[in-house]
Amino acid sequence: MKSSRLLAMVLLLQTKGRRTAAQLAEELDVSVRTVYRDVESLHAAGVPIYGDAGHQGGYQLVAGYRTHLTGLHPSEAGALFLSGLPGPAGELGMGDALAGAQLKLRAALPPDLRAQADRMRARFHLDAPGWYAKDTSVPFLGAVADAVWRGQLLHVRYRRWKAPEEVDRVLEPYGLVLKAGRWYLVAGPGPRTYRVDQILALRTSAEEFEPPGDFDLPSYWRDHQERFHAFLQQGEAVIRADGVERTVPIESIAKAARHFLSQGPSVEVLEPRELRDEVARLAAEVAALYRPTP
Hints:
By secondary structure, the protein is of the alpha+beta class. It has helices at 2-16, 21-28, 32-44, 74-82, 86-91, 95-108, 111-123, 141-150, 217-232, 253-261, 273-289; strands spanning 49-52, 58-61, 152-159, 166-179, 182-188, 192-195, 199-208, 235-241, 244-250, 267-271. The protein has eleven helices and ten strands. The radius of gyration is 27 Å and the shape is extended. It comes from Herbidospora galbida. Residues 2-57 form the HTH deoR-type domain.
C-alpha cells in the first residue's frame, strides 16, 4: 500500500509539478503528516525530491527526473490498454497516434506486465454504443476537435428539436464528451451542450478565446447529466410487479403508458389514475386491432 502511494506521489509531482503538502495530502487521501513521512522515505530511496518553504513553497522533483513504469501493478498495466478506445480515437483522427502510443507503452513494460496487458487486451473488448444504436455520420468531428484543442471560435449551423429547427451559432468550444457512442460538444457562451452530429455546417474562426478559469469538463458533464435526468423524471407511478408494489419515476403519462403496456400482464399500474386509464385505453385499442374477424 505504501509503495503504491509513494509511486503515486512521484507521478503527481512529475505530471503536475510543484505541489504543497496539503495538496498532496488531499490528492492521495492521507494526512499532511503522512506526506512528510513519505517525502522522507523517497529521499532515503534516492528520489531527487526537494521542498521550498514559504507561501509559494512546496515539493517538486529535480528538473529532468523521470520515473519508469516498473511500478505499475499488473491490473493497472492491463487497464491502460483497455482505456484506449480505437473507434473514438479513429473518429478524432488519432487512431495512428493511439496505436503508436500503445506500442511504445508495451515496449516499456517489464515482461511480466507486458504479458498481463496482452492477456487483458485479448480477453476483454470495449464496445460502448448500445445494441440498437445506429452508426451516425459525424463529418465535422475532426474540425470540432481541432478547434477545441486550439481554442478557436466556431461558426456553426445547428439543427435542434424545436422551432426554428436550424439556427446559426458562434461557439466557444470548451471540450468534447463521448457518451454511449455519441459525441457532444460543450461550448460557451453558457456553457451549453450540442450534439456534434447535428452540426450542419461549420467554419473555424482565426479568433481565439480562453475558457473560464473555473470551468471543469468532468464536473460540468456530471451536473448536466443530473439536470437531464431530473428533467426526464417529472413524476412517479405506483405499480405492482411480481406481487410487489413499488414507486417508480416516470417521464410523462404518454411515454410511461406505452412502456408499462409493453411489459404485458406482469406489470399493473395502480397510480396515478390518468396513467392507469391511459394504459387501459391503449390496451383496448390493441385488443380491438387483434379481434378475430367474423
